Sequence to fold (315 residues):
Amino acid sequence: MNAEEIRIIISRLSALGYQEENLPSKENFLLLQKEEPFKQKLIIIGNSLQLAEEWRSFIIQAVLTKRSPRFPIVVGIIIFSHGEDRVEKTTLDYIAETPWVEVIWEEVGNKLVIRKPHFRWEIEDKVVFLASRHLQLLREQERTKAKEEVRLYPQPWLTYFLLMLNLAVFLVEIILGGSNKIGVLIQLGAKYNPRIWMGEYWRLLTPLLLHAGWEHFLFNSIALLQLGTLVERLFGKVRFFWIYLLSGIFGSVASALFRADTISVGASGAIFGLLGGLVYFSIRKPFTAKKLFGRNLWIMLGINLMLGFIIPGID
Fold:
């Protein structure tokens, strides 16, 4: 469970009258306290990475700090898993044998399971069970929603059209003398500041279709195929078109302003715009994003950054 889910369970226990207490010397544990007629209850929350001696030390410290001369203290333990790590059985047995500990809950498979029951803790057990079940239902709803969203996305025909258009323009470059020839690139619309200042503002757009060499064309095509199909399916054709177009134009404008002495071509600005769209989507819907593209987003980002350094004419 993550920190937010742990806080939800704590809030449910707070509704029973438990109050969170602070013990500054022990930052890795949480302590809840509640006074009942004729007894005082403590709930100590920790994780599976903590050693048996750390648990015993904190339990003793909590009891000595919070005990009242009027009522006896009883202790409940909640152990959350840290990633895939489960608490060791020896640690669990050690905690169970510690004085004052009457009940233990352990996280198993994203739900809390009671390991040491006690009749005095039946109400807390029901609250913990219901809170854990509620979190499970929320996760299942997120998974269902993510699957439904994936089925709603249209086919990325616009991305395929752009790929074919880029291929056609690249073949024209080769026919006219080669995609590495500066004269050919300027003739077809490369970003060339002297011409832009003379009024050829369309040169802010045409570099998106030009490529300097087959390596540049190949990597940009792969990036557009992987990223473009995703962005078009996630955002739709209209928003994909504007993300691609405006990012590419702004990239050309930035190049004209900050790399005025460079003749440049390529759709790197547009590609980074698509990456930005996927970053935005992964922030808004992280579960769906992880299922759809996972680490591929960062791999493509690294490839495009690398191309900007090793291939001339790309900025």
